[in-house]
Amino acid sequence: MDGVIVDSNPWHRAAWTEYNRGFGIETTDAMQQRMYGKRNDELIRDFFGTYLSDAEVLAHGAAKEALYRELMRPCLDDALVPGIRGFLTRHRGLKLAVATNAEPANVDFVLGGTGLRPFFNVIVNGHEVSRPKPDPEIYLRVARDLGVDAATCVVFEDSYAGVEAGLAAGMTVVGVSTTHDDLSGVAFSMRNFNDPALERWLAERLAVTA
Q: Which portions of the chain are predicted below pLDDT 50?
């Protein structure tokens, strides 16, 4: 979702910086880089320390995400990755899913706030799996819920952890370069969903798996 459906990284970075500063933690660029594709329980313990209880981790994560939504809300529609709405409209006949490490409230915020939720047959968030990306659990769960073979799935990912998860699940991965330009192991790379080569590549892929 983040970095694929909505280019939310600038607001996540701003939210982490502001939230951490309230606790006397200056968020470095290295810390921001570790954010991409990770679940909040990992990040809170990374930034605040491993001594925190599960309840404290959950509270910190919820508070940071509430701040993110406050910052992002006025810009949500404008932050959609270019071409995503048209792409989803063109491919409504396919089984579509969201597999995200994000918290449930952020999934509701993005998919509900943009009106994109009806496009997806299955939505799995980071609280519904025991092991977040880069573990393949979330992608295997989505394939199971869709009732399809993982090997026939195409994953769109922007992060190293996400690409690793998709490949480990045995899926074909498309790299979206909103976050990183050097996503190794992907079968196709694109800037956004307006890339004219995307539809040709996807048509060839669908013909092979049909």
A: none
